[in-house]
Amino acid sequence: MRIISNKDTNSKATKRILTIGGIVLGIYIIGTVLFTFITLPNTHVNGKNVSFAPKESVIGDSVGDFDIKIKGLDDKNLSFNSKDVDYKANIPKGASLDQNPLKWPISFITKEDFEFDYKVNYDEDKLDEILKNSQFMKKVVEPKDAKLEFDGKEFKIKEEVEGNKVKYNKLKKEAISAIKTRNADIDMDESFYERPKVFAKDKNLQKALKDANEALKLSYKFNINGFDKKIEGETLADMIEFQNGQLTLDYEKLSGYVAKIAKETNTYGKERKFNATDIGEIVVNPGVYGFKLNEKETAKAILEAFSKRKSKEIEPIYDKVGLNRYENGTDLKDTYVEVDLSRQHMWYYKDGELLISSDIVTGRLSENALTNKGVGSILSKDRNSKLKGKDFDGSDYETPVHYWMPIGWDGEGFHDAYWRSSFGGNIYINNGSHGCLNMPPSQAAKLFELVEINTPVVVYESSTNNSPNMLY
What we know:
The protein has 472 residues and is of the alpha+beta class. It has helices spanning 6-37, 55-61, 124-132, 168-181, 203-215, 233-239, 251-265, 295-307, 427-431, 441-450; strands spanning 43-45, 48-49, 67-71, 77-81, 112-114, 147-150, 155-158, 185-187, 219-222, 230-232, 240-243, 246-249, 272-276, 280-284, 292-293, 312-314, 318-320, 336-340, 345-350, 353-359, 374-377, 382-390, 396-406, 413-416, 437-439, 456-460.
């Protein structure tokens, strides 16, 4: 029986350690020699991994031509060479990879970056041409959000369209980066694509679907005498939309509908048929009188009512209002002031009854200071006013009057002319006013007492054609 001593055991262990140490040392020496000529692991030049590459070629290779490959998500790819964009780069003076080969073991767990300014140049227009003519820009399907869609009976959800539209600016930015860093492979992920923002499974959209079908019961009727205008049923359904997580009305469609109503119901700025005293039906020019819908505020009122999910009779909001709107939709019926510039006469009718009939004097024809024609309005009633302006000789004038009733934006109006002893006939030709409608004091006082503000004033010429149209 052989007895193994501790001495023999220690000798063998020592031998093993020396052997392993020798192997490790040999590997280290070989690695040191090897990494004297090639780059260390985890070596990057301008962002590109150049590990284990010959040192003498790494810097020089960074200025030669190379291929750039771009891979999309839907089997669309692009490959081009740097020379296709006139790529040029210059090796910086004194550029070198200063690495210590003795440190090669720790380089496997550490990263070393080298940044060199190669002064890269390329033709951006040629790059744009390559990218814009690539497969990525052909057969593009635009992304579409899931949305509510009315099928004639109820709302349903139309699913989103994912699409394949590439974010061109991002693609170009990455291509430029690849050219500058020589990181030639670009794998496009989701961030390169335009995608829908609303999906069919969106909880808010599901909630809006239920809300939209309930909203179909709503009705918005416009309180405009003579017109049956309302938003309900399919008209309302066409305006309902899901926006920013909420059910609302498409403002553009709503505004368009209100604009259509305004066009049909506005009387302001339109010609009118008028039954002239002792003449019959004529057509009169527009003026400052009439109804004009404030489209923006009216649409706002509808939006507000819809947000509360309540049916409502909408009171139109007007920029301009007349005295009355009648059942036939017109604003001129049996209460008005009538002026015939040709006959130099005025009439005031209230509810069809003639209350005033008077000769007048209007703007002087010989000085071309003619009174304008059109449908004006009694804009205000003022006592003891002073009328100011330029006289026919160019001097300033200031005339006090007891009763002043302007009818338009032209500065013209009814007033008493106490300095005149006669009215009517052809006085206006050579001795007319500066444009106002001069009345006998007693008749001016009567008109002032009886007429209401906003009463239409119809000014026309029955047998002459001298006067300009009223401003409005």
